[in-house]
Design brief:
The protein is an alpha/beta fold. The strands form six sheets. An eight-stranded mixed sheet has the order 2-1-11-10-12-13-14-15, with helices on both faces. Helix 13 (about 295-315) crosses helix 14 (about 330-360).
Length: about 625
């Protein structure tokens, strides 16, 4: 008899804990000690916390703010609230107090779960002002509850860990009453363009992802994930849900230990954002550079040979994006040239794969899929990860779509794309009037499907702007389709810079090109309504000094005013414009008129979102005076 698939996330939890009770579900470290948790223990922890929450009057429809970073206690909290039919409103620990107050007030949060006592103290004055706030819970703290004081630590709540058959029966009965259309969570957008909006996501929205995504990465219970992203972000949260649904293991890591944990835990999957892949790219290249110029040149040559071989092999197999069918003779000629290059490159490619195995060991040696989402993966990074022999799944999604829209999974071999829309998802490319454009034409991406939110919470104005009468969501992203139906993004309409001349410039491609330079940690393109483009650059000081050291005097290189020196600025600007040359596919107006170095790095919660996307409006406001001086 065929098993009926679960209709809610609670059903998923129940099924996996029954199927794999003794399988390791989570691995995490606390106070220097490593802990492993089985699915049986996970079920027990969720039940006990849900029972305690219920006793404190958290129930169906209750809104609960969860302020915490990535940890085992977060997923237990999330699942405990879900089993009660409560609505979680999650955010990260670096959320500014003002933003937190706005979200809690707007969402009507009656309860607060906070990661640590220290974090609670940071927002104490604000939480004291919230009349609707009834009880605060602290995940990591000693006993906190005192008579008439509505603050409890989890230590207070979970003193009694005894479970009876009646407890289990009541838990299952309550969870079974949850309906697919019930709201599971309110996820407030990270605010790259203004005030955060509360995205309403139901069980049905998340269940679409749980059912549709595992197939494109061939996920099963033997897989192991290394988790690093903030769990309040829907990309990480959905990744954890599908990992749990498959009965696989999640290992919680941190930014500080991520590189070491790759080698230590040897995961089969990693899901993270482009900026972390950029950081790993930079770290590996820095290690190679320290081994000497000869070895660095050899490494770069091997990567280039591998990338060239794989690119020509894809051309031969029709695995590169195609927007119009070429003439037969042209197609045959291109394939003949590609075949010739493959023959010439083959010995070097074999050597490259042998040598690059050492790089793959840095990723643990078992990594079968690296998933990049939460932003656009730069083409050079996509090609580099592929060249070292790691299968990269370039995924596209948005909070409003829970988040998956498309992904270049194992079912798609067309490189340089985002793959086809995932099962049940309708994607259109439209012009300014909403008319569907032909294949290869660039336009705005519209999405409709079972994963799409019912709308922004208590925000009718934004709902009118974001949704069409036919139920499509206007993503604000610009894209096009290949002849074979794969999606390619080309920019974001809301981020487009319009010069005084009327030229439209997509900043993302230029910024990713600039950050290829080893002495550039980050870059932001500016120039809205100006005559030309400029860039604000966060430098790697040590590498920048090395770069200019062979051309400029020691007095300049070691001076306190190094970052403001005209010779240094001119040297770097010329090097950037060398990369932005028309021969490399850039337009004349995309060269830089000027650059300025910033002395402070961008921080998550300030200039960056928690998934490390740039808050352009914040950066432009903060450095408005500098931008005006730079570009006039």
């Amino acid at each position: 008899m065929q098993e009926t698939p679960p209709a809610t996330v609670f059903g998923v939890l129940l099924r996996v804990c029954q199927r794999y009770p003794r399988q390791t579900a989570f691995v995490y470290r606390a106070a220097g000690t490593e802990f492993s948790v089985s699915y049986e223990k996970f079920f027990e922890d969720v039940l006990l916390l849900a029972r305690s929450f219920s006793e404190k009057k958290i129930g169906h429809g209750t809104r609960v703010m969860v302020l915490s970073d990535n940890r085992y206690g977060w997923i237990v909290t999330d699942m405990a609230l879900m089993t009660l039919g409560a609505i979680s409103v999650p955010r990260g620990s670096d959320t500014p107090t003002g933003e937190l107050e706005y979200i809690m007030t707007h969402a009507g949060c009656e309860f607060l779960v906070v990661e640590t006592d220290e974090l609670l103290q940071r927002h104490q004055e604000m939480t004291a002002r919230l009349d609707q706030l009834k009880i605060t819970f602290i995940i990591e703290a000693e006993n906190r509850h005192k008579l008439f004081k509505p603050v409890y630590s989890y230590h207070d709540l979970l003193k009694d860990r005894t479970l009876t058959p009646a407890d289990i029966s009541e838990f299952i009965a309550r969870g079974s009453r949850i309906q697919p259309e019930d709201t599971l969570t309110l996820v407030y957008t990270s605010g790259t363009t203004g005030t955060p909006k509360g995205v309403v996501l139901s069980h049905a929205n998340l269940m679409h992802q749980i059912e549709a995504l595992p197939g494109i990465i061939a996920l099963d219970h033997e897989d192991s994930w290394l988790s690093i992203l903030p769990p309040w972000h829907i990309f990480e949260r959905t990744a954890e849900y599908i990992a749990i649904a498959a009965g696989s293991c999640i290992v919680y890591s941190t930014l500080k230990t991520f590189a070491d944990d790759l080698e230590r835990y040897r995961p089969t999957l990693v899901a993270t954002v482009p900026r972390l892949w950029e950081a790993l790219y930079g770290k590996i290249n820095a290690v190679v550079e320290k081994q000497g110029k000869r070895k660095a040149r050899m490494f770069r040559s091997l990567v280039a040979a591998s990338a060239s071989f794989r690119r020509n092999r894809r051309l031969l197999r029709d695995q590169l994006p195609c927007y119009r069918k070429p003439f037969l003779l042209i197609r045959l000629w291109r394939k003949a040239v590609a075949l010739g290059k493959l023959v010439l490159l083959y010995p070097t490619y074999l050597l490259a794969q042998k040598k690059l195995a050492l790089v793959r060991q840095k990723f643990g040696g078992r990594l079968r899929i690296a998933i990049s989402g939460g932003g656009s993966l730069p083409a050079y990074l996509d090609e580099w990860i592929d060249a070292v022999g790691i299968r990269i799944v370039n995924a596209y999604g948005m909070t409003e779509c829970a988040p998956g829209i498309a992904g270049r999974g194992l079912d798609c071999e067309v490189f340089g794309t985002l793959g086809k829309p995932i099962s049940g998802t309708e994607v259109r490319i439209v012009d300014g009037q909403g008319s569907v454009l032909p294949v290869g034409s660039e336009g705005e991406v519209w999405v409709r499907g079972p994963q799409l939110t019912s709308g922004y919470y208590n925000n009718p104005e934004e709902n009118r702007k974001a949704f069409t009468p036919a139920g499509f969501f206007r993503t604000g992203d610009l894209g096009k389709f290949t002849l074979t139906g794969e999606l390619v993004l080309v920019g974001r309409s809301k981020e487009m810079i319009v010069l005084a001349s009327g030229e439209n410039v997509d900043p993302t491609h230029i910024e990713s090109t600039i950050t290829m330079l080893p002495f550039v940690k980050d870059a932001v393109l500016v120039g809205q309504d100006k005559k030309g483009l400029g860039a604000l650059i966060v430098p790697d000081m040590e590498k920048l000094r090395e770069f200019v050291g062979d051309k400029l005097s020691a007095l300049v290189v070691e001076s306190e005013d190094f970052l403001h020196d005209k010779q240094v600025i001119a040297r770097v600007k010329n090097e950037i414009n060398r990369l932005l040359h028309p021969h490399k596919g850039f337009k004349p107006h995309e060269r830089l008129s000027g650059i300025r170095f910033l002395e402070k790095e961008f921080k998550a919660g300030e200039e960056l979102t928690n998934t490390l996307k740039k808050k352009r409006h914040i950066i432009e406001q903060k450095y408005r005076e500098l931008i005006n001086k730079l570009l006039g």
